[in-house]
Each structure stands twice: as structure tokens, then as C-alpha cells.
Amino acid sequence: MNSPKKDGDDDVPVKDPVKYGELVILGYNGSLPTGDRGRRKSRFALYRRAKANGVKPSAVHILNTPQDTKAVHSRGQHSISFTLSRNQTVVVEYCHDNSTDMFQIGRSTESPIDFVVTDTSGGGKEGEDPSIAPSTISRFACRVVCERNPPYTARIYAAGFDSSKNIFLGEKATKWKNPDGHMDGLTTNGVLVMHPEGFPEDPKQGLWREISVCGDVYALRETRSGPTRGKLAEGESSALRDGSLVDLCGATLLWRTGEGLMRAPTLRHLEALRQELNASRPQCPVGLSTLAFPSLPRSHRWEPNLEERQPWVYLTCGHVHGRHNWGQRPEGVEMPGEGEVSTTRRECPLCRTVGPYVALWLGCEPAVYVDAGAPTHAFVPCGHVCSERTARYWAETPLPHGTHAFRPVCPFCSSALSTPGWTRLIFQGPID
């Protein structure tokens, strides 16, 4: 987290570098299941580089033969190619921009990608290279360009430059010429962005929009990969705000600014809240055993020897218990891992309410919290625990799903939420 450099890159940030912000993949609760390694991790910090690597449009070439295209690309400059027909291609060359830094995000593990994004829908097998695993995330999905001087504005653009420094929009890609004459286009599955208002103090969801290759903002297409672009969103910008969401069709990223992160809770603060909750010695009203949340961070999977005092909850009523067999058929107790949804329905021994019964897990990705409040609420149906304001915000924030649907999900595990999506936890104190 102390460097934005790529593997083997010499672009090491200077002492006390400016931090533009962080991109956090929703659904991993602090780290990838197999661990954060190199450029493949659950979050990526963007620092001002030792040397600017931004680019900006320069010359435009209208080419009529493949030989002309090869000649332009052989110059070694960044470029975007718009194929209009077999006989005509428009190539926009880009030159160096010493006022910006560029960071590229995508599924590919090739060197131009700074942040390798793993598909949260589980595309591919465990341990499989995400650059070759089945996925709807583009290999070169998008790029973020940050101004090197205050206010360090970060802007999002669809598509990233490949190893040949080219972005290629083929004949079937959605593309057009704007009234001012410059070419633009959309990627196959699109890059969607939502800018909230007032995040995190009084957050209100914005509208989901699509970002073009040149950074313009459009209303959504009829379907995710539809052939016709939406209407231009007049006056709207691709500049990221604190709390902006970027959806890559397979993973949703949360942008937190450097300033916003300074006000956000830290993992140390969340650990202090955990210890404070455990110090209150909540008890299971059936077994009268003392419950305790496991330390942070911890495994993503169920560990029976370490989780004997794990709190469990009846999601319909919110009563917290220890793990027990009350109301369960005698053949055993279902023990889902973190983020796995239990299908078991039981009767709460306190209020007789019937509903899902799941283990509680503390949400330990600080970036998704909208305040530093106590862990009093749990998402339904996964059981991840956070503050009330955080639970309410994410339960009211629909994220893209499929080709044209939206649904709220738990930011810690990406489980689809029910309605209202959260429950207030009711703890039983110790009996003196």
C-alpha cells in the first residue's frame, strides 16, 4: 500500500508522497481470499508518481490502408484507434502530459495494468490467473487520470492502453463523431459510474451513468452491451468524488479521496470497537456462554476451533445467540463460512420468530464505512456487522447486476440484500 508502482517498475514515489486516493473492490472485506499480492489485491492506493506518466490527445490521422495504421502505431506513442470500416480507421495519437498521472485498471496481468481486478462473481477456478479466467471484466477496463497539482482531481475514462500503447475500438464497437469533430466510443460491457452527494456525512445516491473512452458522461444504454449509446448527460463530469462507485461489469470499485480517507475510520478503530463490544460480555440466552467476535483481520472461512464463541443471530428478530441446535433438525448444524448465506430457518427461543439463523462477522474494510459508529446492525442475509448508518446507506444503494438490473449488496461480501437489507442486533448482557 506504500507504492503505486507495478511489479518491476522503477517509478517509486518520493518521500511523503501525495496520496490521490484509493480504489477498493467491494465484496472482499479487507483482502482477497488468497491474500493480497503485488498488483492483485482488494484495494489500490494512488500516489503522485516520481515522474508524470499522463498523456493527452494530439494528432488525428484518417487512414485508408492497414499499412498506414501500422506506420502510425510503429511510432511508439499512445493512441486510440476507431475502426469505421474495413477501409477507414481514425487514429488519435496521444502525447506526454507532465501535469497528470495515469493509472490503469483491468483483469490483465500485463505490465500496463497497475491494479489487477478480480471478478467478485467468482469467474474462473480458485487460483486461476484472472487474465485468462472466464470473466466479464475487460482485460484493459479503464484508466484513472489524476492531476499532479491541487486539488488533485481524479477523472475516470473507459478502456485502458494495452502493451502496444493502443486502445482499439473495432468495427462493431459503439463509436461516433462528436459535433466538435473528435471521435469517441464505449467499451463492450461499459464502465458505469455513480457519484453520491454529501458522502460520507449525509450521503445520497446519485444516478448511474456510463463513461466513454474520452471521459464524457452518458445515460445508460438499454442493456449493458447495447449497440446504441445513451443521451449525453449535459453538465456532468467524469471527475471522481469521495464515495464514487465504478462498475466494471463483474466488480464494483469504491473511490475514496486522500482527504476522505483521513476522516474515515481505520482498521485500528474498528478493532477498538470490537474489543469494546467483547468487553461488554454479551451472552447467549440459551447456553449462557459469553460471546466474542474474533480478532481482525481473520480468515474468510469458517474455523470451528477458533470460533467457538462466535455470535449468531436470528435475522428476522435480531436476537443474538451462540451457536446451538435449538429448533434445528437433529442431523446437524449448518456452518456457513463468511459471506455464505444459510438456508436454515429456525425459531428464536426468545420471541418464537422464525427466520434465517447465521453467524455474525464484523465488517473489516474501513473504506466502506460512512461513520465510525458502533457495530449495532447486520446485513441480511449474510450477517456482516457494521454501524447503523453504514448498513442503511448500502442497503439503499443499488449496484449493477446482469445486463440491465440493479440491486443492493453487502459491501463486505457482495451478497444480494433482502428488504430492508439489515437488522438491528439485540444483545443479551451478562447475568450478575
From TrEMBL:
Ranges for domain Pellino RING: 277-432
Record-stated family: Belongs to the pellino family.
Signal peptide: none
Keyword Phosphoprotein: yes
InterPro entries assigned: Pellino_fam (IPR006800), Pellino_FHA (IPR048334), Pellino_RING (IPR048335)
One GO BP annotation of this record: regulation of Toll signaling pathway
Keyword tags: Phosphoprotein
Domain Pellino FHA: 15-272
Top-level taxon in the UniProt lineage: Eukaryota
Protein name: Pellino
The UniProt record lists the keyword Phosphoprotein: yes
GO molecular function: ubiquitin protein ligase activity
